[in-house]
Amino acid sequence: MSHAPDAAGDSGHRPAASPDVSPDASPTESLSGSLSEPLAHPAVAAPADASVAAPDAAARPAVHSVALQPQGWRFDAPEDQTLLLAALDHGLRLPHSCRNGTCRACIARLVSGRIGYRIEWPGLSREEKDEGWILPCVACARSDLVLDQPQAINLFDVPPPPSARR
User: Fold this and answer.
1) Which residues contact 69 (CB under 8 A, 6 or more apart)?
2) Single pTM value for the model
């Protein structure tokens, strides 16, 4: 089971490359030529070709399908959202309490797929991780998943409380 990029402590973000400037160059030498070039305005410089994706389309996170066992329910989980919140957004309540990986109330078994954690070390032992246990409150999908969580509840199927039935 892969926990990249979180397990390695690598967020995947890299600083922008700095321009090639000689350490001996004066400030004006390092800028030579750049002042005479026209500045491109994004609205003007954008290609008119409709096949080019909009900038915000490239920034959207990938979305993966998550199946819950034994119920057979499915929901979509964007890579930038925890499994717990994605399930709640789709009307599925997973057990939870702290939402930060310490209480373990949300523990579930990863049957298949890959996840990454939002925190460096979730409240699981090495043995539990090796057995496939995960904490959905701090885990994000990195592929399509199958989770075993028999305590999940479909909020749309819950009957109203007795006081509301009168």
Assistant:
1) 111, 146, 147, 148, 149, 150
2) 0.62
Instruction: Compute the distance between CA of residue 87 and CA of residue 153 in angstroms, rounded to an integer.
Output: 10
Q: Which residues neighbour 21 within 8 Å (Cβ) at sequence distance 6 or greater? A: 30
User: Is domain 67-154 annotated with CATH 3.40.50.300?
Assistant: no
Cβ within 8 Å of residue 55, ≥6 positions away: none
Quick one: 12 exposed, middle or buried, by C-beta within 10 A (0-12, 13-18, 19+)? exposed
Backbone angles phi, psi at 128, to 5 degrees: -65, -40
How do residues 28-70 score in pLDDT, each as one tens digit? 343 344 333 443 433 333 444 444 555 566 689 999 999 999 9
Task: Please check whether residue 75 is in contact with residue 155, taking contact to mean a CB–CB distance below 8 angstroms.
Answer: no
136, 83 contact by CB (below 8 A): yes
Q: What is the DSSP string of 13-41?
A: --PPPPP---TT--HHHHTTTTTTSPPPP
